[in-house]
Amino acid sequence: MYAIVRAGGRQEKVSVGDTLLIDKVTTKPGESFELKPLMLVDGSDITVDADALAKVTVTAEVIKAAKGPKITIMKYKNKTGYRKRQGHRQPLTQIKVTKIG
């Protein structure tokens, strides 16, 4: 059994026991929260009906806060001596899916 859930602006395929990185959530480590299911696949049964999915919950537990890879941003203008360097690391949250049902 697996589900397609909306997690921080993206869709992720999850099953029980999966760990994944999603956009930052405000939940503290060790606490649980629910993800919104968009599709549920149980063997050959595929559920995409909004009324049926309203009864389904996908529960995940926050493991820890994390950061994405460093992205370097360079701005440069020719012949003027203008150079600007900037870096960014996206804040993420590592979660573990504990229950689908």
UniProtKB/TrEMBL annotation:
GO terms for biological process: translation. It comes from the Bacteria. PROSITE patterns: RIBOSOMAL_L21 (PS01169). GO terms for molecular function: rRNA binding; structural constituent of ribosome. Transmembrane segments: none annotated. The keyword rRNA-binding applies. Keywords: Ribonucleoprotein, Ribosomal protein, RNA-binding, rRNA-binding. One of its GO terms (cellular component) is ribonucleoprotein complex. This protein binds to 23S rRNA in the presence of protein L20. Belongs to the bacterial ribosomal protein bL21 family. Part of the 50S ribosomal subunit. Contacts protein L20. This is Large ribosomal subunit protein bL21. It comes from Dermacoccus abyssi. The gene is rplU.
